[in-house]
Amino acid sequence: MTSSKVSPFEQEIAKLIVQALKLNADPSTIRPEAALFGEGLGLDSIDALELSLAISQTYGYQLKSSDPEIKAMFSSLRALARAIEKNRTK
Amino acid sequence: MLHAPLIGLYRPDDVLAWEADGPRTASEFLSDVARLADLLPDRPAVLNLLSSRYEFLVGFSAAMVRGQVTLLPQSRAPQTLRRIAGDYDGSYCLTNPDEAVEGIESVMLPSRIGLVHWTAKIPQIPLSQVVAMAFTSGSTGQPTPNVKTWGALVSVARATGSRFDVKSGNPNGVVATVPHQHMFGLEASVMLPIQHGLTMHAGRPLFPEDIRDMLEEMPGTSLFVTTPLHLHACVTGAVKFPAVGMILSATSPLTRELARQAEQHFQAPVYEIFGFAEAGSVASRRTIETDEWQLLDGVVLAQEDPGWTVRANYLSCPVRFPDRISVSKQGTFHVLGRAEDQVNIAGHRASIGDLNQTLLELEGVQDGVFFLPDADEGSVTRLIAFVVAPGKTEDDIQQALRTRIDPVFLPRPLLLVARLPRNETGKLPREALLKLAEHHMGGSPHDV
User: Fold this and answer.
1) Using 50, 70 and 90 to split pLDDT, how confident is the model at A1?
2) Domain extent for B131
3) What is the value of pTM for the model shown?
4) Which strands form B92-95's sheet, in the order they lie side by side?
5) In angstroms, what separates the C-alpha of A39 from chain B's closest C-alpha?
6) Range of the domain at A13
7) Over 80: is that where the pLDDT of B228 sits?
8) Residues B207, A52: C-beta atoms closer than 8 Å
9) ipTM over 0.85
10) Mutation for B interface: A39, A56, A67, most B CBs within 10 A
């Protein structure tokens, strides 16, 4: 069920993360199941805010902390891509 | 001995705080404080890590009633917390149930079941009582405590209130994105509302949608306490906000353009507060009108060699100003630049020297240096680190740093190099570091 194969949309989101947060990383090296915050990529709440801005500008999806899925959504590239795909308005 | 009441002018049924599940009246607050004060262990100091602003306030107040000092760490890195706890014999942590810190005794807040309502008396706290220690990263790499007396916190709250003509009902409440364990957050989002009879929102919104929801939840108009980072997100996104009474921004400089946009978005004046952990808030300005900072009542600047100090009758000794400033005849001041060695990232100050020291103490690190590239428009500029550590990976070093420094200072990126471009005196010229960054990242540092 969990596959390490990266879908084109996941690749697109990986690029968005690297660009929005100015990471010195090749987007293709972000593993889809690895943690984005804390241990994995090491992102913090400033990044969450900057990333939310990029997501709302690119896909018209406004993130919200009270959304019950928010924690799960920021858990990995795969979860984030899935949530954006489901909620995007553009 | 002189005293000041714990809270300002509230009637017993006035709403003091707005929690996730609804309002808390002033009398509920006083009984929550009395009950917790009875339950706290008999200790000198407490690390209050509670994430609800209201629960934090209950913990802070109960500690004051018991004569305990609240320790306000500059970061939540476990190593920092353990270091501070180790420095204060018998200190313990007040935490949420799922956030206990390994190696420090934790006390959980009791649930509110069986709450007794009664009109408790408002506690009177001696002005000279030391109620908090705000930690900053010191010159030795050790967290340095900054003593806060009840008198200092009350004086700053009153001076800020009188600067902006804050009184009960005008505005009605305070919504804040800043952490209440941070000095500006404690002053503007906790002390300011409770000293003026306002309703404080217990939440800490992050995204623009969260901010809108909390502003809408609050009865009446609110004062919005925030940072340039959140304001930038608010004016850039598509979220529509209700009008607020006023915005207070601090922790890093606000550009005039962003201030202008924020005034339009929120239909309210935007003021900036100038402060630092050692002295607390000292001055304010309306950003769209002037670059000059006007001192709060009771704050005086004195010239010393080198630089300036801040004096106030609630500060036990003069405090050195962290920035280079020029002072006008009228007593307003203008910031010329950061004092050398200081960096400020999203409101967190640190000394580069301390960060370098921490880096050099890591196992396997032979040489290393942090540096801040030139600022970029619209987003937070992060530190870069060059490290000489044969046999270690970038990940090894990031993991080791993560437990020792505030995450906002974690280098982005951390670059492993064979050696640093030290000149013949052993110094590292900024030019050489910029060039090295360019070489490693295939462009200027802020293009990556």
Assistant:
1) very low
2) 3-338
3) 0.83
4) B106-108, B92-95, B45-48, B69-72, B130-137, B143-149
5) 8
6) 8-87
7) yes
8) yes
9) no
10) A56
